[in-house]
Design goal:
It holds the Pfam family bPH_11. The chain is an alpha+beta fold and 165 residues long. Helices cover 29% and strands 34% of the residues. The longest helix is centred in the N-terminal third of the chain and has 40 residues. The radius of gyration is 21 Å and the shape is elongated.
């Protein structure tokens, strides 16, 4: 390889690295701005009650994310709601508890739940037929969001859908 070709290749590689770094920085800036904008909209999540009854149904799986209802691709990034993680979803007479690994638990009061259904696509995640359990609920701020959960065993969804009816 002659030296002019080597120099041209190195310059091209350096420019490519700079362009990739700039694109990543812009993506991170957009994520932070969206999070700040949504933080005002979302407000504080409901607190977990001190005492709850016994769990009627429990599923193990993955917290897919939350979206602003009815848009299935408008992902909520405020707080730690935007981070996907392994989770346990438990239904109580007073509401639903979503315990996430590496993130704060989410308490959904029974009075705030408007719908429990299955979806194929949520928060940009594509699952098998009826692969995501979507819980639509109203936050204390008045905003409706959909919280998505993909169970390891999707046969357990039947109990959740029957209880919601």
């Amino acid at each position: 390889m002659n030296s002019p070709t080597l120099v041209g290749s190195l310059i091209f590689a350096a420019v490519l690295v700079v362009v990739i770094a700039v694109v990543i920085q812009l993506m991170m800036l957009g994520w932070r701005r969206r999070s700040l904008r949504q933080q005002e909209l979302i407000g504080n999540l409901p607190a977990i009650p001190d005492e709850v009854g016994t769990a009627t149904t429990t599923l193990r799986g993955v917290y897919v994310g939350s979206t602003l209802a009815p848009e299935s691709n408008e992902r909520v990034t405020a707080g730690d709601l935007g981070f996907r993680s392994k989770a346990v979803l438990s239904r109580y007479p007073e509401g639903i508890l979503l315990e996430r690994i590496g993130a704060n638990p989410i308490w959904i009061p029974q009075s705030a739940i408007s719908e429990v259904r299955t979806e194929r696509v949520m928060a940009g995640k594509l699952a098998a037929r009826s692969g995501v359990l979507a819980i639509r609920w109203r936050l204390p701020s008045g905003v409706e969001i959909d919280t998505g959960f993909r169970a390891g065993n999707r046969e357990g969804y039947d109990g959740w859908l029957e209880e919601a009816a």
